[in-house]
């Protein structure tokens, strides 16, 4: 004879089996810590080399650790007029070249992860592809970086070189064109994201 007790016991056993046999999804979201992160744009000019630092950036990474580490999402957003060189004239020329009144942000959006290679102790060599948008122009870019992923913090470190003209930017000039900026720039980043 089937009793309520037997039905309940069978049902609970099935629920337990379902929970145990379902793979656990461990997606963790980390948000960019603006105070701890650093992003510098470096270039050359006919007068001297130059650097511009970012004062305001935000972003996010989502890691999945179900079986092996996977990156599900990676975004970065830099406020264009937070790029500061310490020289007002240079900053004005930069904002003009980037058309900052119209294009308030420089963004990166992950589209594909090419490789995540463990180098031990939560360190990884990573190669991704994503859409980099500067001055309203979007280009697919390959970016390689080192990643340190712990329980509460992820750190990304790397460099990316490109030409301003690839994004339709005329390299800025100063002093009636007597000082010209080189076309090649390099972005160096040390990005800290916290849970």
UniProtKB/TrEMBL annotation:
First and last residue of the signal peptide: 1-27
Domain Lipid/polyisoprenoid-binding YceI-like: 29-194
Superkingdom in the source lineage: Bacteria
SMART domains with a match to the protein in the record: YceI
InterPro entries: Lipid/polyisoprenoid-bd_YceI (IPR007372), TTHA0802/YceI-like_sf (IPR036761)
Pfam families listed in its UniProt record: YceI
Stated name of the protein: YceI family protein
Gene source species: Gelidibacter maritimus
Taxon lineage: Bacteria, Pseudomonadati, Bacteroidota, Flavobacteriia, Flavobacteriales
């Amino acid at each position: 004879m089937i009793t309520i007790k037997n039905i309940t016991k069978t049902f609970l056993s099935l629920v337990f089996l379902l929970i145990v046999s379902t793979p656990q999804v461990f997606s963790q979201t980390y948000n960019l810590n603006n105070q701890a992160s650093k992003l510098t744009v470096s270039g050359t000019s006919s007068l001297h080399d130059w650097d511009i630092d970012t004062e305001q950036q935000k972003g996010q990474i989502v890691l999945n650790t179900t079986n092996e580490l996977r990156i599900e999402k990676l975004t970065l957003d830099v406020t264009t007029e937070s790029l500061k060189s310490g020289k007002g004239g240079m900053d004005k020329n930069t904002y003009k070249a980037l058309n900052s009144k119209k294009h308030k942000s420089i963004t990166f959006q992950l589209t594909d992860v090419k490789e995540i290679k463990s180098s031990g102790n939560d360190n990884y060599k990573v190669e991704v592809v994503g859409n980099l948008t500067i001055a309203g122009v979007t280009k697919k870019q390959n970016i390689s970086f080192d990643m340190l992923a712990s329980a509460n913090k992820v750190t990304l470190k790397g460099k990316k070189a490109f030409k301003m003209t690839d994004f339709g930017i005329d390299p800025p000039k100063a002093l009636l064109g007597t000082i010209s900026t080189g076309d090649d720039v390099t972005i160096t980043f040390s990005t800290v994201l916290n849970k």
